[in-house]
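BUG: 3D viewer hangs when loading the predicted structure for this chain

Environment: internal workstation, default settings.
Expected: structure renders.
Actual: progress bar stalls at 90%.

Input used:
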Amino acid sequence: MIRTIPLTAGLPHQRFRVELGGRVVTVRLYWSTRYGFFCVDLRDDSGPIALGRALHPGIDLFSGLNVNLGRLYLEGEPATVTNLGVANKLRHEI
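Structure tokens produced before the viewer hung:
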């Protein structure tokens, strides 16, 4: 099953909670002005899951991690502050 996690364009920093694979995860997105892409921090109640992962199309944010949460990836154009959630979608797949 694939679902879309809503993102808000125009905000260089945002934080929200979402259920992923039966766990409530806090997602923090922040724009890196130095490198020109969004970074992602993922945490649950027990602590960090992944910190500082770059948000690029087609790249699984859980790749290389043994977290059993499925796949979380950006689909569409590379994310910018103005096109986030408009020209791309954050997808969760289990």
